[in-house]
Amino acid sequence: MTTSIRTTCPYCGVGCGITATQDHGSIQFSGDKQHPANFGRLCSKGAAVGDTLSLENRLLYPQIQGRQVDWDQALAAVADGFQQVIAEYGPDAVAFYLSGQLLTEDYYVANKLMKGFIGSANVDTNSRLCMSSSVAGHKRAFGEDVVPGNYEDLEQADLIVLVGSNLAWCHPVLYQRIRAARESNPQLQVVVVDPRRTATCDLADMHLAIKPGSDTALFNGLLNYLHQHDQLDTSYIAAHTNGFDKALASAQSDIPPAARCGVASAVLEQFYAQFAKTEKTVTVYSQGVNQSSYGTDKVNAIINCHLATGRVGKLGSGPFSVTGQPNAMGGREVGGLANTLAAHRDFDAADIDSVGRFWQAERMASTPGLKAVDLFQAVGEGRIKALWIMATNPVVSLPDADSVRAALKRCPLVVVSEVNANTDTAAYADILLPALAWGEKDGTVTNSERRISRQRALLPLPGEARSDWWIVTQVAQRMGFEQAFPYESPDAVFREHAALSGFENDGARAFDISSLANLSPAEYDALEPLQWPVPANQPNGTTRLFGDGFYTTTDRRARFIAIDQRQPVNAPDAEFPLILNTGRIRDQWHTMTRTGKSARLSAHTPEPYAELHPVDAVGIDDGKLIKLKSRWGQVLLRARLNDGQQPGSVFVPMHWSQEYAATGCIDAVVNPVTDPFSGQPESKHTPVCIMPYRPVWYGFVLSREPLNLSNSTYRVSVRGDGYWRYELAGETQPADWGDWARSLSQVSGWQWLDYADHAAGRYRAAAIAQERLQLCAFIAPQPLLPPREWLGGLFGQATLEETERLALLAGRAATQNDAGPIVCSCFQVGLNTLTGAIREQGLVTTKALGETLRAGTNCGSCLPELRGLIAQCQPGQAA
Ligand code: SF4
User: Fold this and answer.
1) To test the ligand 1 pocket, which listed residue (6, 7, 8, 11) has its Cβ within 8 A of the most ligand atoms?
2) Which of 865, 867, 820 is nearest to 846 (CA)?
């Protein structure tokens, strides 16, 4: 029998609907055509979600100090451990660190326990690293953390300004929606503001490659331009805002914005004029704006320009913060950040009293808690002695990551709720609690346009894994709070959350979903995606906010914020002359605990890399290894030379953990400086230096079974289709490569084929059993080694031909069918196949490539790269 379940994608803040169709034990995933976020579209990550559902590496049972225990023992140990610390050192000696991967229900219960019943506000979330500057900016300007517009505005706009937002890779379905909108509205102009030429520039009519960190100068300059050219909406400013004169005075500078931004003044004037004359303008911003030591100011510099033109919350116009995580917004609603209370309340006396009465809590936290970076510093200094981490991997994702490892080592009690048994953070847990994975969870999430959607369970609960809301509820009950934590289902938690949003809310807070406070379990189960607010008199939700010019400040006016011209805290110098910018790549998500399991996603970018402008790569060749170092740490990475990178800057992806790359965790290098308002770390501006790394040998191993490789300095593990791939390099050679190869696996009885040229430093080996390739290893003094894609394909064969055995030893493909690095993940179409088809068959449109090779015809995430390849191979032809 075929059944379909509608749920929501676990990855980015676009929040796409996914339909899971089950048929005789197999599940197929497709975009939910009815979901208003995506109308059936998915990107490469969403399309591959089925690859990540296996129980491989799953944590299935609770553990204390590595020993399996039952839930009663584990829950009692957590409750007792926290209570002992609280009794001895007070409530601020404990903390929770949560995640935008949690469902709203999980978040609500954890936040309530800490802020209402333990009596501390030391509960923060990895969303701090992602969008807390937008939260702070919204609160300063609007009085509340509200995204006024929605995705439809992107289709209705005549000008879209994308600031610090590589939408094509980080929010691909929004990129697809904009591309489709432009096909039906050729007037739509797109301006990309980004120091790097990213895949999103594929959409750009204008790319402003501003100097890193000069965003406030750009938008202060725009505010000034609007004033000087009489393009302000003066009646809107007078009727609906405060603080314009001060903001304008701050925006004025003797140094022209073009000089500050490093952009030609004629180009800047063109952008300013376009903004001034286009009523329907949306400015989209994400991590390039938020992840800064003055990210909040950047957000407000953008909002100032929208307020000055009266363009907020109107069809096709407004400032639009796009969040990174699937439920960053849900976390914001329940007060998952240390400086907010639940339901968009703050730490003022009236709100503390109101929430306390609603919860009937006697131990309400009275002051904000520690934000993420400060929280882990407090752990390292011994001020926090019990820490519970849920659904996140802070030893990989926080800046100065090695000090986070040291802090966890020192902390007397570390509890980790996790899906995977072997994350970098799980290694530091005293108590490990098995949580549910995406396909097993049941609850709600909120996307970037305030749309609440259901995540529904598709799979049975494995082992003894349980939902996060249940685990926290059980601990709360064991801490003596049974009455306040009676929950037996996620709908019960949701009803309370919805009721709190309407409690003593006279319209002062936009976040009001009280119309949903009485949903029956069946109604909750069937809940259709809808946008908050959903107050009692608006049960179908609200598409836009503030379009009438009235805000949720005390005087209902928006506030201009005066923005000083500031410089990043850490400027490059002679010792560390380059600026490190970290970010996402197309086919990986966060610290790869899920996407790292997918062979097709891993094929696109198998190794961590540092992208450099050729002028900065003195003595460094493309593809060689480099050491990248800051005052905080160092990594080894593969160099990629790209003239789309701004000279003086280096881009490195943020995804690799030690689980996947022994020396590739870039957050070990990132400075822990934070924004003074939001506490968000400066993830895009760390001074670094680079130098060639010259190992004695390079190599790789492909193996049918996972291996434990420890003798190489450089080691990257990549999931292939039916095999594991290990990229290696080392500073010392083993005494005998043949012995080394045979020691890689414990399995005996294999037939070994070896080739060794000691003088040239080359070694090749293949192990065969039952006519099938089990393992192959290639070592050389240079990184010029046989194509991995060809060798990987041999693992799928039932037998190895004689020519293939010879080719293995020769280190050359037996045929010319090496597809090259994968560009189209959905159909595994490689670079060599594509460039061959473009050059030899004259396929100079993405449509032609799609018709011939299927590339780009499913999720469309590779279309910018396909257009780039066509332009590279046949200049002037891409379409
Ligand atoms: Fe998931 Fe991709 Fe949609 Fe983001 S854009 S929610 S990753 S399918």
Assistant:
1) 11
2) 867
